[in-house]
Amino acid sequence: MQQVLVIGGGVVGLTSAWWLLEAGYHVTLLEREPQVGQAASYRNGGQLSYRYVAPFADAGVPLKGLQWMFEKDSPLKFRLEADPRQWRWLAQFLARCNANANRKTTAKLLELGELSRQSMAQLEVNIPLDEFAWRDAGKLVVYRSKKMFDGAVGRPESEDAREVLSAAECAVIEPALQEARAQLAGGIFTRGEAVADCHAFCLAVASRLRAHPRFGGIVHADAYRFAVHNGRVSGIETSLGPMATDAYVLAAGIQSRTLGATAGLSLPLYPLKGYSLTAPIGPQHRAPQISVTDFERKTLYARIGDKLRVAAMVDMVGEDLSLDPARVDSLLRLVKETMPQAADYNQVSPWAGLRPATPNSAPILGATPLPNLWLNVGHGPLGFTFACGTAAILAKLMTGQAAPFALGELAYR
């Protein structure tokens, strides 16, 4: 059986390695950080939103984006770069900001979401759920604008699984919203959605990888470039020297666009910088039991173990990982206003990560023009949600089997 090198030790790379091992491959993992799950997987929102998958690109988003840029606590920050990759990404994004493109991509992501839910359930045999604080609590999306709320109610994507709630009912089903009740128009509650600690999940998967008889270990080194010879990848140059194997899987988050370019691939990825806050929950606090999304403010609230995780914001500022104090203060202000009693905000810990997003919010997976180079990239803010599903599809494709559904927009073009 072939030897495979998986490049990237985040949640997507780790799950890819696991499914390939289970498919019979011998697998080695290449990760540049000293520990797995240290980049976008480290302190993300923790939500497993299998049914709430609507792409960011939609009709009305460009106008809304312009309005956000003039708001004090805007969920969007934009800085024009002297980088053609940003311009191309924006042009492709704007081309998809219409209802037809949004519906088409949403339908495909719902298929992927359901497969991901089933694939995550398969891991329960190997990884107990309490190892990564998994909770099947459901998801509540709350709306402040009656117009937005009515629009969401009018176009259901999974009507059989959702409940439409008034503002008062939102505060009943989730008491942490009591102080924000007067600001809400209503909400939509979906059962079957979950929250978990993505970093703890990464560590749990890595532990199972190390115990697998066909796993060749984790190599901690920087990947620089692919070497291509006669239409195939002949190796990859790293900080520890060249590495060569039979097949390669690129799952390195935003680094994938630079590495892919060395093999002649043009990957439409852009780093959407997001922030999160983590605060301890004490017995005196009223933390949310349900995963909550504040739709207009694009803010996610999730209880992960004994911590409150709040994730928000999209900063289009290139590969800048620095913590902007103004953005952190803005997020903390919104959190205290919405859920003032949810956690100890005096001990809050901020974090920022780069979410590798495609213009249509759909991951890219499967074959490339190079027969021994495969992709599992571009998951954006839904990396944790889609990781198991895309890993399962990748393993099928690499073993010559058909995907469980037509890939369509998920395939590399």
UniProtKB/TrEMBL annotation:
Protein name in UniProt: FAD-dependent oxidoreductase
GO terms under cellular component: cytoplasm; plasma membrane
Residues covered by the FAD dependent oxidoreductase domain: 4-397
Annotated GO biological process: D-alanine catabolic process
Family assignment from sequence similarity: Belongs to the DadA oxidoreductase family.
Gene Ontology MF, one: D-amino-acid dehydrogenase activity
Entries under Gene3D superfamilies matching the protein: D-Amino Acid Oxidase, subunit A, domain 2, FAD/NAD(P)-binding domain
Keyword field: Oxidoreductase
